[in-house]
Amino acid sequence: MHYITTQKRSAQLLVSLALAFPSSALFAQQSASSVTLYGRVDTSVIVQSGRGTAGPQTSIGSGAFQPSLFGFKGQEDLGDGVRAVFNLESTIASDTGAQGNASRLFDRASFVGLASNTLGTLTLGRQFTPLAELFYATDPLKAGNGMTNMNVRFSYLGGAGPRIAGNFGPNATLAGNNLDRQDNSLKYNYRNQAGLVASAMYAFGESANGHSASDAASALLGYDNGPLKLRGAGMRFHDAKGVPFNAYALGAAYQLNSTLTAKLTGAKNKIVSDLAAYGNQTTKVYSTGLSWTARPDLVVSAAYYYGERGIDHTDKQIARKFYLVPEYKLSVRTSLYAVLNFERFNAAGWQLDTGTPLQAGAPHSNYLAMGISHNF
Q1: 169: which residues sit within 8 A by CB, 6+ positions away?
Q2: Strand runs (DSSP E) across 18-143, as ranges?
Q3: What is the model's pTM?
Q4: Which residue among 7, 170, 171, 353 is least enclosed by CB atoms within 10 Å?
Q5: pLDDT of residue 207
Q6: Residue (of 87, 82, 168) closest to 127 by Cα position
Q7: Backbone angles phi, psi at 272, to 5 degrees
């Protein structure tokens, strides 16, 4: 009955929003439309210590600073402040030319919907979660360097590891099941001139096991006022048998003056089950950092991250990471950059895999990426 009630509520929301739009918008004979091709190519030379036989020490990599991608987005003016919108976006591996996710062409976004100047935006498809959006506004590295950034991987679940990615979400058995994006989702975004920012999402698990199997729900509430940005978000997933996985985060960004911006985040998530496969796995990540615009063409960011993971009957895993990231802008679209990352681990901390596997028991690792990023 609860599953049927949820379906009815979702249908009622769609109908209510449709009826709220003036009929003149629905039947406009003349409308303006646009489609934009956009993207980014980010490629670098990467050198990392502490890998041993886990992988090459030096390599050419894609997306060390920001992900390489391409996409299509567009809108059609339906009149009276109403627009039809869509977005298709795909990750690419610029070092090889391959798709970022071999099982999905548009792995980053695939949605369509309606947007109103006053009522907000309602979209359906594969979309980023409100939890992920919190870190786009407040992460000290702008949610960049996703290979080692613990906020990207563990806080907003862009690479959360096998216990989470292998069991939660509608495609838990697929490789690269990044939970920062959800299939089969209904999402609503709203912001107003007073500074209120709000977002809510429900992703249908579309499982024969019932309403709570493989679904996900998330919400975000924020406030923007001049130099200050505040965000809070929560999310709940269920596995195929209804076991819950809860994630929460808080974030803030404050522009201290014309050249300095400070950011701060805290996140926690937990699989609520003592089954051997889950062990009540709990992960915490805290971060802080400063971004300094030294001159119009040079931005330098410094950041500190602390990550901690606990699993029943195992040693706690702890990682500390220090970053220095200079970015030199050759033009509005093209930048040269370096990512210097100094990582320190406790005895079990090397298991906090951040996309570049470490040698077992490695107490530390140094990561350096030097590359070029071009937006089009």
Answers
A1: 177, 179, 182, 183, 203, 214, 216, 237
A2: 33-48, 58-62, 69-79, 82-93, 98-99, 109-116, 120-128
A3: 0.90
A4: 7
A5: 84
A6: 87
A7: -85, 75
User: Could you count the other beta carbons within 10 Å of the beta carbon of residue 19?
Assistant: 10
Lowest mean pLDDT among 16-30, 108-122, 170-184, 229-243: 16-30
- In sequence order, what DSSP letters do the residues of 215-249 get, joined into one string? -EEEEEEEEEETTEEEEEEEEEEEBTT--EEEEEE
List, for residues 178-223, the tens digit of each pLDDT value: 899 999 999 999 999 999 999 999 999 998 887 779 999 999 999 9
For residues 170 and 208, give the distance between their C-alpha atoms in angstroms, rounded to a whole number: 12
CB 189 within 8 A of CB 198: yes
- If you average pLDDT over residues 143-151, what whole number do you get? 95
Q: Which two tokens stand for residue 276?
A: 């051997």
CA–CA gap between residue 57 and residue 47 (Å, rounded): 6
Average pLDDT over residues 11-40: 63
pLDDT confidence tier of residue 32, bands split at 50, 70 and 90: confident
Q: Check residue 249 and give left, alpha or beta (phi > 0: left; psi -120 to 50: alpha).
A: beta
Whether the Cβ atoms of residue 312 and residue 319 lie closer than 8 Å to each other: no
Contact 255, 280 (CB under 8 A): no
Task: Note the pLDDT tens digit of each residue in 8-18.
Answer: 455 454 545 45
80's tokens: 């009276």
How many Å apart are CA 285 and CA 267, to the nearest integer? 5
**d(Cα 4, Cα 9) in Å, to the nearest integer?**
9
Q: Are 189 and 199 contacting, i.e. CB atoms less than 8 angstroms apart? A: yes
Phi, psi of 111 (to 5 degrees): -150, 165
